[in-house]
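Lab notebook, bench 4. Still working through the backlog of constructs that have no structural model yet. Next entry is a single chain of 375 residues. Request: give me the structure tokens for it.
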Amino acid sequence: MESRRMSLPPESTSGSYLAARKRSQKSKPLTGRHSSLKALAPLVLLALAILIMWPPSFSVMRRLVTGLSLVASVSPSFAYRTIGEVISDWKNQPQSTYPTEFTRGIIPKGIHSHNDYWRDVPLFSAIAVGAVSVEADVWLWDNELYVGHDPSSLATKRTFSSLYVTPLLSVLKQQNPETSFPYTNNTRYGVFDTAIDQTLYLFVDVKTDGNITWPLVIKQLEPLREGGWLSYWDADAGVLHPGAVTVIGTGNTPFSQIQAHTTPHRDVFYDAPITSFSSGSSEPYNISSVVIASGSLANALGGPVFGTTFNDTQIAILTSQIQGAHAAGVKVRYWETPGWPLSKRDYVWKTLEGLGVDLLNADDIEAAAGLKEIW
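Model written out:
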């Protein structure tokens, strides 16, 4: 028998099958559904554009972008689980610091750091608690001003310049940096970052002969004067110009030399006796030469404070002196206030502040700064 072979079509490979499918799809016309989507595309794009440019939507998107930028600035990956971790780690971020942060967060307070040079860290300890006034006792010897409470406490490296003038100059330069920003040129802000217009009162208590000591004080203040940091009285305009530092001569400072210092302006002032302001006339003391009047509390009252509180007569005396000084534009400080018992000390501080005293004399500046009823 003759064998018959069936002629079979060649087997289709997978490659030829896919190629055929692609050709079929390319040649297939668009269905109605695809045509509708293509027609709607311009309308969808237009709607999105309107939504983006609509003011409320634009504001939301802008806040979203700003928020994302802030997150990215904290850490590229923002690998924090809680906000507490962000706060704890913030000090490690480059944007956590700024040029004038030396006194960041310190609130100025009407406290006078009595015998400031006795502190472990003179000047800076007072600034750290917000005290706006410090005091340096100066002694002239061999054409230098040494700081100390008495001759036996003097040391060659503890000078008026090294403890006060030079450190103050450094702090003020740091608080007034020269940067690329146009607003920082020639500023003369004070030491406190939270109150840039607050002056720092520098009491210079002259212990040696004032007539020969005070001229050297004037000379050693020259760096502060040259930098434009000192408060001064403009005699021509009759105006007191507050500066970053206000210098007040006390102790053996001769009032006549304060009055004579007018070149180019009077940039040092006199610590007038507070009792001069109780009679209604304070001449020759006025704002041109006196910015603060002081006095021993016992002397101002005509006797010590017995018991734990002031009596009515003492309150009346203090009120008269304080109001008289304020009427002349002069601030008030009382020294030799009681330090013990603590309840009496705190009572005196609170009462004086309530009567209008501008500077509380304090040996324990931390305790004075901690009086929550006052500050």
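Notes after review: Residues 109-370 form a domain with the TIM Barrel fold (CATH 3.20.20.190). Residues 1-22, 24-28, 64-68 have pLDDT under 50 and may be disordered. Flag for follow-up if needed.
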